[in-house]
Design goal:
Helix content is about 35%, strand content about 25%. The protein is built from 10 helices and 10 strands. The protein is globular.
């Protein structure tokens, strides 16, 4: 855990920004199951004859870095861990429906933290204000709403913003819920779409950093291997930032694997410089 925090701090020291024009820090919060064999890992029983651990990550879109990570039993709910994450004031957090919790929304709003999520089907609201939208961009509505259900009324949830958007490529309609009234509706929709980056993050580390098969069978062995994978990801990200040569993480990982037992200057290796001659080779050239 401490090693990951140190590496994350090193990566943060390198200048990097998310793709949007606003200056607010942007995060995506999500969790992914790490599937295990119930026969080999009976202590990790999840459900219906399955075993699993769960990796919770808060992804910082400035560099796509895991700013927060927790590993729990598979049965632990996403929102239970989400409530423990401390985001900086002014942050924007993209979350899916699994994190909808009105008490938590109230807490985020009181701390000056913005959230962007999707509305559940059973939510009841009334429209307070309607704003014009450019339907050519896919937007269908931009409204200020009040949630009129018993729980949000009891908690005193503030007015929220509902944005309707139809994806021009798939035709699917989305309804977003946010407490941010400053950004344009198109940007809110784009923020939620950017949440897909955390899904790509989970997919990448599972495919490339060996957390589908495990060396040990104890819980501590599983935790250790997953934390090592996260530290490896941060090391690769730091090397990429330092080199500034346009390498993808995938290509960088393959290059390091091929040269794992060679003593080389890392930046020179990334530049493609020829390996330096050792003392024996230099003496042989002198004799020739």
């Amino acid at each position: 855990m401490n090693d990951q925090r140190f590496l994350y701090a090193r990566c943060q020291s390198r200048p990097s920004k998310h793709k949007f024009r606003f200056n607010n820090p942007l995060y995506s919060l999500d969790a992914s199951l790490i599937d295990l064999s119930l026969k080999i890992f009976p202590w990790a029983h999840y459900a219906l004859g399955k075993a699993a651990m769960k990796l919770h990550v808060g992804l910082n879109h400035s560099g796509n870095l895991p700013a927060f990570a927790a590993i729990t039993d598979g049965k632990v709910s996403d929102i239970e861990i989400g409530r423990t994450v401390q985001f900086p004031k002014g942050s924007i957090v993209a979350i899916d429906k699994g994190y909808i919790d009105y008490r938590w929304f109230n807490l985020l709003d009181s701390k000056g933290i913005f959230f962007v999520t999707r509305i559940r089907r059973n939510v009841i609201w009334r429209v307070i204000e309607r704003r014009d939208v450019d339907k050519r961009s896919g937007l269908t509505s931009d409204q200020t709403i009040e949630l009129t259900g018993i729980k949000p009324q009891k908690l005193g949830l503030p007015l929220l913003r509902r944005i309707g958007y139809r994806d021009p490529e798939t035709g699917q309609h989305y309804e977003f819920l946010t407490n941010n009234f400053r950004l344009c509706a198109q940007t809110i929709a784009a923020i939620y779409k950017q949440r897909w980056q955390i899904e790509l993050f989970f997919k990448w580390i599972k495919q490339n950093l060996k957390i589908k098969s495990f060396v040990g069978h104890s819980k501590n062995a599983i935790l250790t291997q997953i934390w090592i994978a996260l530290c490896t990801y941060l090391l690769l990200a730091y090397i990429k930032f330092v080199a500034k040569l346009g390498w993808s993480l995938q290509a960088l990982l393959r290059l390091l694997q091929l040269n794992l037992f060679m003593r080389r200057d890392l930046i020179a290796l990334l530049r493609g410089d020829p390996p330096p001659l050792d003392a024996d080779q230099q003496r042989q050239l002198c004799l020739i």
